[in-house]
Each structure stands twice: as C-alpha cells, then as structure tokens.
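Late entry, adenosine-5'-triphosphate complex.
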Amino acid sequence: MLLIQSLGGDRLKKILEVQNLHVSFSTYGGEVKAVRGVTFDLFEGETLAIVGESGCGKSVTANSIMQLIPKPAGKISEGNIIFKDIDITNANEKQMRNIRGVDISMIFQDPMTALNPTLSIGHQLMEGLKQHQNISNKKAKEKAIEMLNLVGIPNPEERLEQYPHQLSGGMRQRIVIAIALICEPDLLIADEPTTALDVTIQAQILELFGKIQKETNVAIILITHDFGVVANIADRIAVMYAGKIIESGMKEEIFYHPKHPYTLGLLHSIPRLDQKDDELIPIDGTPPDLFSPPVGCPFTARCPHAIVACEKMYPLRHESSLSHYVDCWLYDERVKNMKQTN
Amino acid sequence: MIKYIIKRFLMMLLTLWIITTLTFILMMSIPGSPFNDVSDKTSNEAVQANLESHFNLDKPMIVQYYYYLESIVTLDFGPSIKKPNDTVNDLLGRGFPISFELGIISIIVAIISGIILGVFAALKHNGIIDYLAMSIAVLGISIPNFVLATFLIQQLAVNLELLPVATWKSPSHMILPTIALATGPMAIIARLTRSSMLEVLTQDYIKMARAKGLAPYKIIIKHALKNALMPVVTILGTLLAGILTGTFVIEKIFAIPGMGQYFVESISQRDYPVIMGTTVFYSAFLIIMLFLVDIAYGVLDPRIKLHKEKGD
Ligand SMILES: Nc1ncnc2c1ncn2[C@@H]1O[C@H](COP(=O)(O)OP(=O)(O)OP(=O)(O)O)[C@@H](O)[C@H]1O
Ligand SMILES: [Mg+2]
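Prediction complete; structure with ligand written out below:
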C-alpha cells in the first residue's frame, strides 16, 4: 500500500531523508568509521525497522538524526539529514533543542536507566511539555494523564506522584513512551525499545506501538537486532551491516524474498514457532573491525557464497523492485553470466 | 516517619550517653586535679581539700559520675572551677554563637563554592578550568588549615594590609578565618562533585533529558546535579566534624572569642565542669547535624525511605 502511495507521489509526505550519512569517532586506537554511507527515507505514519547485529551502527545512525552523538569525539563527516524539507545536518544546539522532543523523539533501550531516579514520573512527563509549550500546570497535568491513559497505565493520577523505582520495567517503558509522545512528534525513534524486557512484556510494548501509530500517525524508526520483533509492526525493513544498509525493502519482500546472504543468515537465526524442528543457525564469524573496514563487501569473510569480486569492490546496487534493493554481487548480471559460462 | 524519628532520637541519646561516659572516664584517668597546680602558691593542703569537697571531687567515682549525669540531664553544668565568676552555661552562651557563626559560614561557603567548582570542572572536563579547579582542590586538601591561616594573615593582613589580622568584629574580620576553615572541605566537595558529576553525565537519563530538548541549565541542575550530590551529602557529616574541630584551631590563631578557647583551656587546666559541658554540647550538636544530613539524603533520593513501610 505504502509503495503505491509513494509512487503516487504527493499523497504521503516524506518527513525524513538521510543521504549518504557517514559518522566516525576519533578514539585513542584511531578513527572508528561507525556509519559509512547510510541512505534511507521515511514517510508520514510509516514504520521503518533497522535491523542488524550488535555494533553495526544502528544507534549511531539514530543518535545522528537527533545530533546526540558524543562530541567532539564523534562527528558527521559526510552526508545530509533532511527533516521535513529542512537540512538539519549542521543545525546548532539551540536549533536542535527546538526539534528534539517536539518534532523528533527518542526511546532508549533500557527503561531501568532512562528515567531519572530522583524525579517524579509527573515531573519527567511534564517538563518537556513545559519546555516547549507555554502551558499552564493544570493543562500540563491533564495532558500527562491523557498520555498515561494512551500508553495503558492504570491510575494515571497516582502514578504522576510516584518515582521510577516504584514501577516495573514494562511500566517504565510505557512511561518512557508517554514522555516521548507528549509533545506529539512527527517522528519517533525507538532504539531497541524491547530488548531489556521479558518476552510477554515485549509483545505488549510492540502492540502498544501499533496502537499509538494508529491513533497519532507518528512515523517510527524501530531499531532492533531481532527480526522477530519487526514481523508485526514494520512496513519497511533496512538491514544494516558494518555501517552500511546492505538490503532494504518492504517487510514482505525481506521476509519472503530475502536477497543478501547476511539477511538470510539473520532470518535463519530467529526461532520460529511453526517449525519446531528447525535448527537455529547462527552466522559464523564476526563483523569486520571498523577502524579499517574492507574495501569490498564487508560480509565477504563470513559469506558462504563469496566470489572474488566481493573482496575487491563494494557491490553495485541491485534493485529487484521499486522498493527492494540489495548490495550484493551475486545479483549482478555479469556475475550471473559468469556463473553460467563456468 | 514519626516512628523513625523517635527511634533515631533514642539512638541519639544512647550515642550521647556513650560519648559522655567515655569523656568522663578519660577525664578521670588524667592524673592530677584542678587544684594541684604547682605555680599556684596560695593553695595549701587545707584549701585544696576544701575546694575539692566543694566541687564534689572527694566523693567516690560513682557518685561523681552520678552528679555528672545529673548535670547533663538538667543541662546545668554548674560553675567553672577556674573562672569562678562564670557558670559553664555562661561560657557556652557567650562562646557558642561566635563559633557557630564561624562554623556555619565556613560550611556554607565550602559547600557552595565546592559544588560550583566541581560542576564547572566536570562540564569543562579536561579543559583549562578543570585543571585549574582540580589544582586548587589538591592544594586545598593538602595544606592544613593552620598553615593556610598563617599564610593568609602574613600576606593579606600584614603585607598587603587588605584585611584585619585577627578577632571577630565585622564582616571583614570574618573573611580570613572563613577562608582558612572552608578551603579544605571545599576542596573535598569540589573533587567529589566533579567525579560524581562526570559519572552522572554519562547516564541514560541525561541523554533522555537531552532528547527531550530541555534547556542545558535544567539538564545540569535538575537532572545531573541532584543525582551527583548524593555522595557529597554522605560525606557532609565527616566534613561537619572536621569544621567543628577546625574552629578550635582557627579561633586560637585569629584570637576569636568562641567556644574553642574555653574548650582547649579547660582541658589543660582540668576544669572538669567546662570539659563536660563543652563535650556534651559539641556531641549533641554534631549528632543533631548528622541526623539532619540523613534527612537531607532522604529528600534528595526518593529511593531511600527513612521509614520502612511494608509492601509497595
Ligand atoms: N562514543 C563512541 N566512541 C567510539 N566508538 C563508538 C562510540 N559509539 C559507538 N561507537 C562504535 O560505533 C559502532 C557502532 O555502534 P552502535 O552503538 O551504533 O551499534 P549498534 O548497532 O547500535 O549495536 P547494539 O545492537 O549493540 O546497540 C561500534 O563499533 C561502536 O564501537
Ligand atoms: Mg545500539
């Protein structure tokens, strides 16, 4: 559906465009090239899942959009971030403060540490609102209660007076979500929002994301290392590896027609309820080090189908549909021809 | 809460009793009596015996201990032995307000400047301000207050004649003693605030506060400092005790007519009622201060419950 609408052009608005983003950190050991040319876009009300193993640059990408990468060690060395037609790549702190929490919000992985232990839930909910809107205490409180209702927290009025330690992990993550949504942002970046929670709570929180999106039409970037998490709520999926998006497509395309051997590997390593005997096959090996990433495809060393070209040169993009592309030599016509002649 | 306070109060009484009893034992184990000062030509055997019986010093130890406890309970420590015109309560009434003023001003100066120094050092981590602040802190910790006091008098009062040399008459008189007394604790607070602040600034909730688009001062004060102050509050008790004993030394150097001089004199002169009175008074004061520190801790950190409730 989204595809058709995006083809149609102006029915859905593009709210975020990340173009050729490069982010690196200078450390004692040298320069870590954490993100190496990431490009994607996002439409109103859409959910994009960014999936990849630990350390592939998902959080760095997310933090770059919010300009929350630790400075001066980390910097955006190349590329552009365009939010609602405005280039915010070089926005200063003051400009970013008016975007953070208002237009773009963020949810962090661990609800146990994301809330300040010394401030009440009410305070933490309302302070963003008061920062950005000229609003009376009474109105702020009403809004806070409305948000707590939205995220499914019983007795919201009592909760406002409570402190984080008085709530369970799942409850805290709901609070964090309420905080993120209270100024009605257009974009919500959720960085592994369920990783720290146990499985039943995970499902509830994911369900909540679906409900919120229906009610507020917020666009969501959902970051996860777990394909299982994205199955229900993502519209599109971008698979990241060693600082690059190596495959991207609609959810169905990625699930039913995965192209990149890495995506395949990830899909094989999720447990499936319908195929009990299926063995989980973890991907052998480890990602390349990002101090000196390989010139060719970074997955070569772990790839069961690697050919000579993989090591020599980064693959040319292969587009299998208007919404689905993969960076892999195996789909290059010339390679296919070579295989046939062999 | 009420239950907690009552419990704490009983504990405080117990502590006070232990301290006073130890003081009594130590006092009595110092050889000699207030009246056998060899330089005192007027005293002869008869006079001395008379005096001793007047102050109950000839009674058995246990009886003296009883009188001692009685004086504590009634808060009346009787006349001083060496200053016949004053009761101990007179001395306390005269000296304590001055000592209290010196101590309170110093601790407030130490806390405020220590925190400011620590916060700026942390915010400008590894910058010039950081190095400068931490150099001051290291000096402040390692230079004893009496050395600093003499140095300040020499330079600022004698050489530059900027400030009065001694005594406690006007605000300008208070500056040097306060600096001398406050620098050490300030340095300790600054270092602690800095390291604790640096740790807090890496926490997720700070990142979350930034992600909300809060103004920087709100992030630093509301979110970071409140958490960073926790360890500072913990050492406040120790610092208070340090300031308290510090006043004895500083008062002596600056000729400030506080309680310190009576306390020090009373020990060298074995003026038992004054020793008892001041000890009880100081102990009670410190114990109450420590109690207030505990309360402050509970106010800062909602996770610390002063009163234990079931469930929740
Ligand atoms: N502040 C930093 N200084 C130096 N290197 C960093 C910094 N932050 C991230 N990196 C590096 O950037 C790379 C990508 O990190 P990132 O946090 O984006 O991974 P991730 O995909 O979010 O992984 P995870 O699933 O573990 O959260 C890692 O190799 C990491 O070591
Ligand atoms: Mg991450």
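The CA atoms of residues 38 and 44 of chain B lie 10 Å apart. Will revisit in the morning.
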